[in-house]
Amino acid sequence: MTQTDIKDLTLDAARSELADLANKLSNANSKYHGDDAPNLDDATYDALKRRNTAIEDRFPQLKRKDSPSDQIGTSAQDGFGKITHAQRMMSLGNAFTEEDVTDFVQGIRKFLGLAPETPLAFTAEPKIDGLSLSLRYENGKLIHAATRGDGTTGEDVLANALTIGDVPHKLQNAPDLLEVRGEVYMSHEHFEALNTRQTERGGKTFANPRNAAAGSLRQLDAEITKSRPLRFFAYAWGVLSEPLADTQSASIERLSALGFQTNSLTKRFENAIELVEHYKSIEQQRADLGYDIDGVVYKVDDLAYQTRLGFRATTPRWAIAHKFPAELAWTHLEAIDIQVGRTGALSPVARLTPVTVGGVVVSNATLHNEDYIRGRDNTGDDIREGRDIRIGDWVQIYRAGDVIPKIKDVDLSKRPKDSVAFDFPKTCPECQSAASREEGDAVRRCSGGLICPAQAVERLKHFVSRGAVDIEGLGAKQVEMFYHDPMLSIREPSDIFTLKRRDAAQLTKLKNRDGWGSKSAEKLFDAIDERRNISFARVLYALGLRHVGSQSASLIARHYGSWSKFIDAMENAKGMEGAQWDELMSIDGVGTVMATSLVTSFKQESERASIQRLTDELNIEDAQAPDQTSPAAGKIVVFTGTLEKMSRAEAKARAETLGAKVSGSVSAKTDILVAGPGAGSKAKKAADLGIKTLDEDEWLELIAGL
Fold it and tell me: pTM to 2 decimals?
């Protein structure tokens, strides 16, 4: 459902949306500023805040007392003392386009009544993505350190601030009263080292350096903060007993002379064009800075002008933050690795100099296939205007929401002179078997099959995954360990079920491994035994056959009913003809590609033998025939959001038993959308298409008694 245009909102609709926005933004502020665990990416948060402001501008009489427009950060957290800021700590307005920057400059001139020829200077500095901190010095001694909190009251973190190397404890030749304000941050290098240590200790890891810095500064034990190397950039001030200088730029130089770290990329400019050029220059340097920034801040340089311009409710008129696009960033492509999947596909992966994109540190990106690297799509047409991708390139990374990061563009002006085109391998990097590419296929595949260790491991990982056999305590990490351990020797799915029986000493072998003991080993063997009784559809999906997904496995299982009937059909199939082939092709949702994959897999001697060894260990339950009389029979159903009374897998299985077809996406063919809390784009699309939408209780009522 697209948002209603502001001009088309009714009074009641506007009031309702403002209430919803106030709730969402308040929660987001609490998660970001209070819990250091953001639940919205920057782009989404900024869009919601702009929407709130636009509605308030259209309906000023509806502005709420708890309007997000009047809020800064969130309340100070319990566990710390509270400090009231002598001068409120403000937030900044945002600019997202060059036009916004031009409007900002012109607005300043208009407010001050300056003639076009009157000089007006600005400073431009990187916007550090960290945690705001205010340091109060009296007679040169640091006596208070406080977070921003809600702008009025912050947390007393003096003991922690004293552990930061960039924070001077005493100042020489400083004003008697001086509040220095700036940003606490963590470098990329120290962030990676911290997460490595946390992983080794089994502790919490952080999504990005900003969260790590905020979490470290807010430790109740200052020794923990001391163990985490935080940094501090000074860029502003609060109350003063005497001015630092007459201009913003000179004041920053004074702070530097007093011993504070200030940012060397802070420059002074005369107009909007120069500001934007500096913004672009900083954006290009972003990945090499060694710390996170999310934009560039512009400030009027003349402090007398700043005083005249004053403040709005929560932001100064004389400053604005020009934000980088939240989903884009530039960085170096350090290497291209080739990964081999369970179907033998050779997938290229970009190894990047880590950069934060959309609130997440990105060090890898998909490169899709060899055509994509060459600058071609699957039809041979140019992408990126035909620019290929090479090791050593300066590349633009794209990430939106939960989408896997990918390379959007290449800056040829920064390409090394000795650069060479990437030569996509013609042999498998894991087993050195030939890697061929069938006509019409965009992917090159290893021909090694089960002799290829990468394929074997990936197929085993798929076999134990949640939608497949789903053995508690046996995940991807354990499978990889067992595969490479010659004593445990799990090389194919049947080995999992014979693990304990093959050798009476298996329990001893397993409990002597790191992370395993007698109880955990026994629990694993019990969990394996519990999965010996398993449904037809789960077994078929778990085999990891090419083109056979969970939904198609369910369709096939319901059609044949029993595993033995299905096996007979596959063994008696004669290629793309005959009764068995025709029956397979008659199943709604099964096409030539999937049918060929099924028949071919069961005709391969080694594959068939491996499957037989597995099924000899299992009790495969017949598929339940769908109820064609239920109100869900023949309907296409989509589940979205969080289901609270059953798991997604259980809901899907129940719907299919009732004769419904469960889809993962909403289209014009969808009959019912079941939407739980947190439903997003699918619910909006369903509303746009006029599709019947039920909550979980309504869905359960519809199928009650069936």
Answer: 0.58
